[in-house]
Amino acid sequence: MSRLPCTVALVGNPNAGKSALFNALTGARQKIANYPGVTVERKAGRFALPNGEPVELVDLPGTYGLDATSPDEEVTRRVIMGEQPGQAQPEVLVIVLDASNLEQHLVLAQEVIALGRPTVVALNMIDLAERDGLVLDPAALAAELGVPVIPTVAVRRRGLAELGAAVGAARETAAHEPAHPRAHLTMPERRMLARTMARGAVLSETSKHRLHARLDRVLLHPWLGPPILFALLFVVFQAVFSWAKPFQDGLDALFSSGADGLRSVMPPSLLRDLITDGVIAGVGSVIVFLPQILVLFFFILVMEATGYMARAAFLMDRMMAGVGLSGRSFIPLLSSFACAVPGIMATRSITDPKDRLTTILIAPMMTCSARLPVYAVIIAAFIPARDVLPGVGLQGLVLFVLYVSGIFGAMVAALVFRRSLTRGAASGFIMELPKYQLPTIKDLALGLFQRGWIFLRRAGTMIFTVAIALWLLLNFPRAEPGQDQVNASIAGHIANGLAVLVEPIGFNRDIALTLIPTMAAREVAISSLATTYAVGASDENARTIGLAAQLKQHWSLATALAFLAWFVFAPQCMSTIAVTRRETNGWKWPAFMLAYLFGLAYLFAGIVYWTAVACGMG
Amino acid sequence: MTLDQLPLRVLARIVAVDWAALVPEEAQRLRALGLDEGAQVRLAYRGVFMTRDPLAVEIGRMTVALRRVHARAMHVEPVAADCPA
User: Fold this and answer.
1) Which of A160, A327, A471, A543 has a 20 to 30 Å separation from B6 between CA atoms?
2) Chain A touched by B36 (CB under 8 Å)
3) ipTM of the complex
4) Are A99 and A134 contacting, i.e. CB atoms less than 8 angstroms apart?
5) Scanning every residue of chain A, which has its alpha carbon at the shortest distance from the alpha carbon of B47?
6) pLDDT, average across residues A66-91
């Protein structure tokens, strides 16, 4: 009888090294998707049993027990029990244990083994246990648990073949014997037994100085820890903007030369314009952010893999508690400084649903990299390059104020939301601080590749569609001879209507027109302003210089400041809205996000404009 | 004495936990992490700012971060001998 590929699931506590084992077993042959209806990531991959039979391996979210306290843990429970729709019940369960944390991890192991399903235990990270001076006896543990125990070191690929063989054997045995659930124990009984078993498995234990204890003494030090964290964050920000710059310029040049090349090859037609101005300009303007995203994710993945991220959350918890959030929200908000999209995706690690929603709602206020081109052009055009203090330039100060305004706005918004929309008991902060570990190049590369691919796929689908739609809106209906195409187009008509709305905050019709395509992505504002002011230069650099002069002619200083203020809050990013819809499973919250952020943007831009006019900058 | 009052790096046993004072999900999470009656714990770090929140607690070979509000629900008594937990 031919069967579907047999499913095997990895089960374990968080930080048991499950993902490393999963990567080691499946290599790059992984499929990442969501379980239907929930925003829990489903990671699956293929590996072959010793007899050559392919097996689908599913990496279940880490859990402390089968009584779920979060959506992730609920998925794990349902898959194990065979209750998850669209997911075959795993034929064999592989419990992943951290060899140096048996007392803790054996509690879940007993709970899973008690189900009576075919089970194999991977005694993982046995090298780290040895480093800590802990020598273990897998055979004694196997005798206690009644299931095979295989020592593994996922990152060094040790024990993988043995594990595969044990999985195959467990499956053969299960084919002959029916499942036999074992006696049910209470939680304290299991914990007691776990302690006894853990002690029984230890052959010898020397109290070597544990590396992580020494590192924590510095990194969690009340006075040293925070400065180290902030210094590290400073390096990350510098790297995101400086390391990525050459690659970004390279990509940019590639897209514009591609468009120029196409222009010289194809005869002038609407189709050519659609490809160059719509597709290449639109999708290209987003893809140029790929280097920044990769650099940021490199740091985030390293911080996660080494175990430092949990320490950062620990150090930031008090500050976040001040606005009703917890240290867990720090990681998504940090990511949002590069791009709110991965930031919002990272909120999945927040267990409390109200905490998570609040974090999603405020994430777009972190100054993302797409705002930088806009800020840079406007600041260069309107803010004089002089020092206010020795070494402190006025332009840099304005940029800093814009960043701080976003953070401040987000904190105030979080405070308000936690007292209204997402009201509830102040969320707690309970989190295991994992052991420090050196990340493996392979796992880092795989993680970076997956993030980059998700980003590119989105640029290739959704942003592609939006770029074409905007181009169509700007080009149809066609203008009569002698008439301005922009004015005649649907977008032009919308802009004329919009201009009435934005006039009170100092925006002219040109800005109103810019705001429409900028809905796709903020950085589009610059290219569309440039188009609107019909600067002839094709070179991006010359255009920027030309644009600055044009802007000075058409805008007052008050208008420019209001425009900057607008961008601190305005949610002009289709990708953010789309990812919010996906992560909150509906249109309610993205719609709310649009409304409140546009409201804030309007208000803040207005206040800045009216104040500036009152000060004589009109 | 409650866990939040324990001096740093002093080994103590949890003698009683006031589970009713905690949010049920958080109580369950703490218990799943092994912070239950009978467990031997050591306060490793306190937060930076005035309220000295959160706390890092060593339990077995694991370090767990939690808030003072959780620690206040756990009554502890120092253990004399530093026996390996």
Assistant:
1) A327
2) yes
3) 0.91
4) yes
5) A222
6) 87
Is there a contact between B29 and A188 if contact means CB atoms under 8 Å apart?
no
Q: What's the pLDDT tens digit per position in A250-298?
A: 988 888 888 888 888 888 888 887 887 777 776 776 677 788 778 878 9
Amino acid at A21: L
Where do we find the tokens 């569609």?
A: A465
What is the rounded average pLDDT for all residues in chain A? 84
DSSP H helical segments within A220-289, as ranges? 225-242, 244-265, 270-273, 281-287
The helix (H) or strand (E) run that includes residue A361 is helix A353-362
| Angstroms from B84 CA to nearest CA on chain A | 10
- Other residues' Cβ atoms within 10 Å of the Cβ of residue A423: 10
How many helices (H) and strands (E) are present in chain A, helices listed first?
Answer: 29, 12
Closest Cβ–Cβ partner in B29, B47, B60 for A430: B29
pLDDT digits (tens, 9 = 90+) for A330-389: 989 988 887 888 889 888 878 788 899 999 999 999 998 788 878 888 988 899 888 888
Count of beta carbons in the 10 Å neighbourhood of residue A145: 19
Sheet with B40-46, side-by-side order of all strands: A431-433, B62-66, B55-59, B40-46, B11-17, B74-78
Q: Is B70 exposed, middle or buried (0-12, 13-18, 19+ CB in 10 A)?
A: buried
CA angle B28, B30, B35 (to 5 degrees): 125
pLDDT of residue A371: 87
Amino acid sitting at position A138: P
User: Distances in Å between the alpha carbon of A590 and those of A250, A362, A424, A496, A511?
Assistant: 34, 12, 21, 26, 24
Q: Tokens in use for A467?
A: 């770029």
Which of B46, B53, B65 is closest, CB to CB, to A433?
B65
Residue-wise pLDDT for A520-531, tens only, equals 778 778 777 776
Mutate to test the interface with B, among A101, A202, A319, A431 (most CBs of B within 10 A): A431
Cβ atoms < 10 Å from Cβ of A480: 9
| Assigned token pair, B27 | 């109580």
* Chain A residues whose beta carbon lies within 8 Å of the beta carbon of residue B70: 428, 430
Could you tell me if A46 and A57 are in contact, meaning their C-beta atoms sit under 8 angstroms apart? yes
For A407-455, write each residue's pLDDT tens digit: 999 999 999 999 898 887 666 788 888 888 888 898 899 888 988 887 7
Provide the strand spans (E) within A394-538: 431-433
Work out the pLDDT band at A539, boundaries 50, 70, 90. very low
Q: Quick one: what percent of chain A has pLDDT higher than 70?
A: 92
What is the distance between the alpha carbons of residues A491 and A29, in angstroms, rounded to a whole number? 45
A202/B contact by beta carbon, under 8 A: no
